[in-house]
Amino acid sequence: METIKHIDFKGLDSIKSRDAVRSYFQFTEEVKTVNVDFAKIQFLSRSATHELLIIQNNLSSKGVDITFLNLTPEVNEMLEIVEKSIGKEKQAGFRFVKWLNFQNEKEYQEYLLQF
């Protein structure tokens, strides 16, 4: 049983899609630790970053330690931006929009004049 998995984005300088991220995390063996090496990655798209953070959260909830290694300032900044936006998505929640029906233009105008 392998307990440590090392993910190296060999030959890549950018990761631009969710599928690209998912393809590196499709392992069947049970692991306790995952090390993700970003040594040559200069660009990480927002969607790829979001997927990476979802995977990180899922693995962490299963007790797997995940570590990001050799982050460039650009990749680190993208991780921080997306991580903050995930919290905002949860805060936004559902917004109720009232649907109004008016029989005629006069009712509509009277309604608008209330404000």
Automatic annotation (TrEMBL):
STAS domain boundaries: 1-80
Q: Which domain of life is it from?
A: Bacteria
> What name does UniProt use for this protein?
STAS domain-containing protein
